[in-house]
Specification:
Structural class: alpha/beta
Oligomer: single chain
Largest sheet: 8 strands, mixed
Helix content: 25-40%
Radius of gyration: 16 Å
Shape: globular
Number of helices: 7
Distance between the termini: 44 Å
Length: 196
C-alpha cells in the first residue's frame, strides 16, 4: 500500500521566507511502525496563516476514492467549490453532511445556496435531521482525516482562531469515517428537486 501523506503549511515557521512545514511519508513502513501520524494544527486571523483553508483544499484535491465532510456551515468560496466539483466529476464519492435544523437562518440559506452546483457535479448532500450538527470533520480514502473547530466558511478560514488535528494512516481515521456513515443514516439526502 502506498502512502502519500504530504500536507503543506501545516505549521508556519518563524522564517518569513519559508512557506511552512512539508510532511512527506514516502516509506509506508513508517506508518506501519508508528500506527499513523497525528499532527495538531492552529490557524489565526493573520493573512499569512491560511492553514485551515490550505489543509482542507489539499485534502479535497488529494482524495481519490471518497471524501466525506461534516460541517455546520457551508459558506464556501469559488476555490473550494471548484475543488469539490472537480473531485465529484472525476469519480470521487463526495458526500457532505450539514444540519437540517439551523442555528443561524442566514448562514443556513447560504449553506443551501451551495447545494445545486455541488449536486450537479455529482456530490451527495445530506442534512442531519435529528437536530443541529456542529461537527467539523473531513475524511478521505481511509487514509486522511481532519477533526477540529474549522468550519467550511470564510470566517473560519480567514477571520478566527481555529484548531484541529490532521491524521494520516492512524486508526482513528476509520472512526471518523464510521461516524460519518452512522450520521448519514439519520440524515435526509438532498436532491436537485429539493433545491427548487
Amino acid at each position: 500500500k502506498e502512502y502519500d501523506c504530504e500536507i503543506v503549511r501545516i505549521n508556519r515557521q518563524k522564517n518569513k521566507s519559508t512557506k511552512g512545514l512539508v510532511i512527506k511519508v514516502t516509506d509506508p513502513r513508517l506508518l506501519e511502525t508508528t500506527g499513523g501520524i497525528v499532527i495538531p494544527y492552529a490557524d489565526t486571523p493573520n493573512a499569512d496563516d491560511t492553514i485551515g483553508a490550505d489543509l482542507y483544499l489539499q485534502m479535497i484535491s488529494k482524495a481519490k476514492r471518497y471524501l466525506y465532510i461534516t460541517t455546520p456551515y457551508l459558506a464556501i468560496d469559488e476555490t473550494i467549490t471548484s475543488a469539490l466539483c472537480i473531485a465529484a466529476r472525476t469519480g470521487v464519492d463526495v458526500r457532505i453532511m450539514t444540519p437540517h435544523i439551523p442555528d443561524k437562518k442566514g448562514v443556513f440559506a447560504v449553506t443551501q445556496s451551495n447545494y445545486p452546483v455541488l449536486l450537479e457535479a455529482g456530490a451527495r448532500i445530506f442534512e442531519f435531521t435529528p437536530g443541529f450538527v456542529h461537527t467539523k470533520t473531513m475524511v478521505a480514502d481511509d487514509l486522511y482525516a481532519s477533526v477540529g473547530s474549522c468550519n467550511l466558511d470564510y470566517r473560519s478560514f480567514y477571520l478566527q482562531f481555529e484548531n484541529g488535528v490532521w491524521l494520516c494512516g492512524d486508526p482513528a481515521v476509520l472512526s471518523v469515517r464510521d461516524d460519518f456513515l452512522q450520521t448519514m443514516e439519520v440524515g435526509q439526502e438532498i436532491t436537485l428537486d429539493d433545491c427548487r
